[in-house]
Amino acid sequence: MVSRMAKGSPTVSEPTYFILASLLDGPLHGHGIIKQTLELSENRVRLPVGTLYGALDRLAAAGLIAVDREEVVDGRPRRYFQLTDQGRALVSAEALRMQQAASVVTKRILRPGSAFS
Amino acid sequence: MTVVTEHRADTGAGTGVLERRYRRLLLGYPRAYRSGYGGELIATLLDTAEPGRTVPSARESFALVVGGLRTRVIHATERPAWVDGVHLGVLALSVAQLAMLVPYATTVPLWAGLSALAVLLIMRGLVRLALPVVVLVAVKVCAITLGLPWLDRTLLPVDPDRFWGGGSLYGGGGPVAPMIGYALAVLGLLVLTAHGRRLGTRSWFWLPAASLLAGADPAGLDFPAAGGSHAMARVALEIGVLLLAVWAGHVAHDLRWAAAAAVYLIPVLAVYAENLGMHSERDVAHLAVLVLLTASAAAVPYRAKRHVLL
């Protein structure tokens, strides 16, 4: 998967962006990621569990996240995921890209004399 | 390292019902994935469910079905691509060949039975055993299409059972297309046998597919003789399976499903070539859809590699 990524330029979807962002402060398990994603996106990104684990599998295969540790709660295993350096770099680059894209608009609409200011 | 920590609070009988229903939805995931991560998924599903809920939400159910299919597709890529593609293509072909014989089962029970046995053996990955069975059926089919009494005495033409109606066996087209179909199946089995390694087993989904295809004559054109519900069921199933092949190629960036579709398409092309000039507009549209979907299954893995969506 990593070698596949090298061939193309990955596009980060909004759910993936918030999953990666939710792991910036430290490792989280599945339910923790869902809660954090919901909070960071101001209730916009509500991940179903099937979608979340599919995304986590893809991100782990791409080397962007890794399993930090496992715990057993009520007899059931629970994995904690953490960002890898590659994942941290990707989400940072994506944030900068969006910031630059946003500034194209915000610089204009917030300019003194603009119709929106 | 695994650490045992807190205990989940007892959440009552409703949770037991919900957990059973979630477990049923998880059956879409491969067995190995379920045994590794099924417990974790169930725990997260129960943690995120609203209190008092006993039925999974439509949104969560859909995500689990798609997630299961996607995981199956990814797991399938652990097998060598070309071997898997040929195996899948030969299985699809043998299912269509069995479906062809089903309406005539009471007149040619031995050959319909052997064809069903061939499907079962191919489905279970036992291609070495399937090869002689397919060769026998192929010889008999050639005999019927040529009007020769090879292997046993079969009164020609072979008419269908009353339930099915329709024309006589291989009466709707020439002998070349069925021969190409069986030659391709035998060739595929020879290649898989020569490869030597044990093949994986295939889903039981393929058995009901044979009954859905039955009654639609793969040796002739579908629509000139009134088409009917059998032909429509066959076309709908073909399109559904080919759409899955396109999706699987996109998800896994892999050509095996396109290879399987191409194996299935070759005898269909032979039918059209053998009946050149006799096609209705719907026949041409049918062929165009099959070719387009097969080409898409071949193209999407390349596109998906260039535009990686995370």
Could you name the key traits of this structure?
heterodimer, A: 117 residues, alpha+beta, Arc Repressor Mutant, subunit A, B: 310 residues, mainly alpha, disordered N terminus
Write up what this structure looks like.
Chain B: Keywords: Membrane, Transmembrane, Transmembrane helix. Chain B: The chain crosses the membrane at residues 101-122, 129-150, 170-192, 204-225, 231-248, 255-273, 285-304. The complex is a heterodimer of chains A (117) and B (310). Chain A is of the alpha+beta class and 117 residues long. Helix content of chain A is 55%, strand content 15%. Chain A has one domain (2-88): Winged helix-like DNA-binding domain superfamily/Winged helix DNA-binding domain (Arc Repressor Mutant, subunit A), CATH 1.10.10. Chain A has helices at 2-7, 14-22, 30-40, 49-61, 85-109, and strands at residues 65-73, 76-83. In chain A, helix 2 packs across helix 3. By secondary structure, chain B is mostly helical. Chain B has helices at 13-25, 31-48, 58-76, 81-101, 109-123, 127-146, 176-195, 206-213, 228-252, 256-274, 281-306, and one strand spanning 2-4. Chains A and B meet through helix 1, helix 3, helix 4, strand 1 and strand 2 of A and strand 1, helix 2 and helix 3 of B.
